[in-house]
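Case study 2.
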Amino acid sequence: MLPSTLPDFGRLRELVATVNAFYLRDRAMVRAQRDIERALAAGEPDGAQVRAYLAAVERYFSGFHREAQAQLKYVDRELGRLYQRQFNLTAERGVAARRLEATQGVLSSLAELAAT
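Prediction:
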């Protein structure tokens, strides 16, 4: 998904700032981030530096993206199960409440008959 042409340096700086907001643990990504920051501070980085940085960003973040998609899919599936369980329990509660009313009516009638 890398762009075929180099991005303008304003947009590149925005990307660098966005990536810098993350806690980077991968040494290669940390090195790529440091290198592009230095190149931008020194002026305009050359095409090879920009391409190397963009490739590192894609490598690093695409794994997290896939992981987040999988987690979201799992959570959505679990929520679906939970909603179905809640629906079933609500229906079951309604049946139990109606049974309680009916049995209470029978017991009340029995108590009235016993009192007379």
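The radius of gyration is 32 Å.
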